[in-house]
Amino acid sequence: MANNTVQDHIEFAGDYDCKHIFLHDHTGDITDIKNMVDELNIYESIYKNALTGSVVITDAQNLIAKLDIHGVERISFVVKTPGASGNRDIINASAENGHPFHIYKITDRVQTAPGTLRYILHFGSREFMRNIRTKVSQAYDGRLDRAVYAMFLDENYLDSKKTLTFEPCGNSDKITIPNMRPFDAINMISKKALPEKSNGVGYYFYETTKGYHFRSWENMCVSNGSNKRPTKQEFYYAPINIKDDTTIDDDKVEYDYRLVDSYEFINNFHDTAANTALGTYGNKVISYNFFDKSFVENEYNYHTQFPLTEHTDNTGGRGSLQKSAVSESNVDENIVNQRRQSSRVSDYPESRVSLHPTTQFTHNTPEGSFGIDVLEDGRKLGQEISQRNQVMNSTTLKLTVKGQSYIEAGDVIEFKMRAVDEKNPDGEEDPQFSGRYIITKVRHKINPTRYDMILECSKDSVKTGYIRSYKKIEKNKNIATLRDAYIEEQGEPYGSL
Questions:
Q1: Are residue 156 and residue 220 in the same domain, yes or no?
Q2: 436 CB-near residues (< 8 Å, 6+ apart)
Q3: Could you give the CA distance from residue 8 to residue 97 in angstroms, rounded to a whole number?
Q4: I need a surface site. Which of 57, 126, 303, 470 has the fewest CB within 10 A?
Q5: Where would I find the beta strands (DSSP E) of 209-344?
C-alpha cells in the first residue's frame, strides 16, 4: 500500500494515504495486515442500503490459521487523499470512530506458491449486519422521514451512530411494519415518501463512506427545491478540445484528476421495448379500496409529466420538455391513441397496468398508501413506477478515474466528450451524452501503488433537446386508407362480412 507516513500533499493523481489496515480477531487482538493486502475494494450505491467491500490477501504467514479467521472479525482503516483534512474528505472506517467493517465470509482460498495462500475477505458495515439480525414489528404515525429516523436510531433495530442526512417528507401516514427487516421496512416507506419541496415521488436510502442518506432523485439534482446542485467534479475524455468557457488548471495533478482513463455506456434510455413494457413512458394504475369496494383508474404520461419534476440537465418548468430523454416523435402513424391525436411512446398507458390496494400496510383509514386521497394516490403510484425506471434504465455511464476520497454516491458530476462526428473537427460537445450526471454507484479500488474509482453515473435528461418531429393525425384516416388500398389490390378478405 502507500507509505506509512502521513502525507500533507498530493504527489500524483491517484495518490492516497493509508497508514494501517487492521484486522481485529474474535479475541480482541489486532494485527496490521496492510503489507499483505493486494487490493482493497469498497462499494457504495444509491440502490443499496449499506456499504460492502473486500480485501484480497496474499498470506505467506498462515495468518488465516494463526488468527482462526472464520468470518466474525472486524477490519479497520483510514483512507484519504493527501492534504485532505475535513471529515467528508476521508474514508474513515476506524475502530476509534466506532465504524470498522464486519467481515462476514472468506472466499477464493487458493495456494499460489509453497507456503503462500491467496484469499478474499468480504465485509459490510455494522448496519449491514444489524439488518440481517433484527426484525421490525411496530406501527408508526406521522411524517415518513421520522419513521425512517426512528428505525435508524432504535437500539432494537439498526442502532446506528452514523450521520443520517435526510430530505424532509411532505406526507404523513399511519404505517404498520409486519415483522420485516429494517432495510425492507425503510425501502417500503421510501417508495411511499413524497418530497416536501418538489413534485417527485419516492426516496433512496443508502450508505456512502460519509454516512447515510434518505433523499429523492430530485434532491440529488437540485437543492432547496429549485437550484441546481454544484458539480463535485468535471471529467473529460481526451483529447480535450471542447469549445466552451471551461479552463483547466495548469497544475498537472488537477488536470489528471479530471481526465477519464476509460468510459463506456452500459445502459441507454432508448431501449423503447424494455421501457414500454416496464411502464416507464406510460402506465395505468387501478387503485381499489377494500373498505368501500371502490376503484379509480389513473394514467401516467411521460411527456406530460416530465416538466413537472426536477432532472439532471434542467430544473423543470417551462422549456424542460425539449430536454427530455425521449423524443416526442410518432412511433406509429397508422395507429392513433384514442384520446390524443398522436402516437408518441408515452401515449400507450395500457403497456403496463397495475392493480393497487390503496390500504396496504396502513391502518383502517380511507386514505391511500401515500397518506393522501385515493385519486391522487393512484397518480403518484404511476409516477413512482415511471420515475424509478427512469433512474434505473436511464443513460448510464461507467467511468474509470483517479481516486478522490471526497466523491460519493449521489454527487453530481459533469462529463464532457466530443461528438463522434467527422464533420466536427473543432471538438464540439456531444449534445446527448455530455452533461450532468448523478453518481449512482462507486467502487473505491485501492492497490499498493494507486487509488482508482469506477463510477456508474446516470442522467434522465439531455443537454440539448430533441427537435419535435410529429404531426397531428386524424383518427382512423390512415387505417382506412390502408384498408382501401389492400381491398383494391387483393379483393375483399375471405370471410369478410
A1: yes
A2: 221, 228, 231, 312, 313, 412, 413, 414, 459, 463
A3: 22
A4: 470
A5: 211-216, 222-223, 227-228, 233-236, 262-267, 282-288, 295-301
Q: How much is the average pLDDT of 333-349? A: 70
**What is the CATH number for 34?**
2.40.10
Query: Residue 476 — pLDDT band, cuts 50, 70, 90?
Result: very low
Element spanning 183, H or E? helix 182-192
Residue 141 bridge partners (DSSP): 174
Q: Say how many domains are in the chain.
A: 3
Q: Where are the alpha helices (DSSP H) in 223-284?
A: 252-258, 272-278
Domain boundary among 229, 245, 262: 229
Q: Where are the alpha helices (DSSP H) in 214-297?
A: 217-221, 252-258, 272-278
Q: Which domain holds residue 29?
A: 21-124
- Residues 142 and 193 reside in one and the same domain: yes
- pLDDT tens digits, residue range 285-332? 988 877 777 788 889 999 888 888 888 886 555 455 558 888 888 887
Question: At 62, is the secondary structure helix, strand, or coil?
Answer: coil
Mean of per-residue pLDDT scores for the chain: 82
Rounded to whole angstroms, the Cα distance separating 283 from 353 reads: 6
Q: Are residues 293 and 357 in the same domain?
A: yes
Residues 6+ apart with CB under 8 A from 247: none
Domain identity same for 190 and 102: no
Asked whether residue 281 falls in the same domain as residue 376, the answer is: yes
Q: To which residue does cell 488465516 refer?
A: 64
Cell of 454: 469506477
Helices then strands (H, E): number in the chain?
10, 24
Same domain, 279 and 385: yes
The predicted model gives 332-340 an average pLDDT of 57
SS3 for 350? helix
- Residue 54 sits at φ, ψ, to 5 deg, of -155, 155
pTM of the model as a whole: 0.85
Q: Which of 367, 392, 417 is the last residue of a domain?
A: 392
